[in-house]
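Usage

Read records sequentially. Each one opens with the input sequence:
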Amino acid sequence: MTRSLVVVSAGLGVPSSTTALAERLGAAAASALRDAGERVEVTHVELRPLAHALADRMLTGFATGDLDEALRTVSRADALVVATPVFTASYSGLFKTFVDALDPDALVGTPVLVAATAGTARHSLVIDHALRPLFAYLKAVVVPTGVFAASEDFGAGGGQDALGSRIDRAAGELAALVAGLPTRRTPLRAVSDPAEDVDDLPEPVPFEQLLHPR
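and closes with the structure output:
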């Protein structure tokens, strides 16, 4: 079975740091899935070319052409990587407009890796105060590690190394959800026989002794 991994980028510039981050995350997630023994097909959805169609969809209630295909692609995905630039301490309007165009039940149970970019690390909380609640409302399954990248994270040195580490960790978590693998680094404790657990319990204290302690 081939897994469908869809990478959604709301980058506005050309070139775009948001799109660059989304592509790195998509490549890392695909690699992690292949390492887990999964076949994967990666599809990229760029929202910038769909801006006019999204505005038309808001006014008419209908999606056509490339926008309709993009919405269908996202709805059929086995897993999503989504990345948005930060505007006014939240996701961009273009990103939210695309999400609003999805069927309300399109992402139920879908594993999602969320990511965002901004000029400064002061906006890093956008992952937890904006993106996670949005996809929780849509009943998607958001991986524990969100990836935020500020401008300095794309330069040489420690920032880039730290970003790479976050990308690998988030990609591994997404792959674990899709492949049905345990997400813990240590093995889960085996479930024991309930009867054995009962035998190991201490004898209960008699009620009379509880009433009249020595």
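Summary fields computed downstream for this record:
- The chain is about 45% helix and 20% strand.
- The first helix runs from residue 17 to 35.
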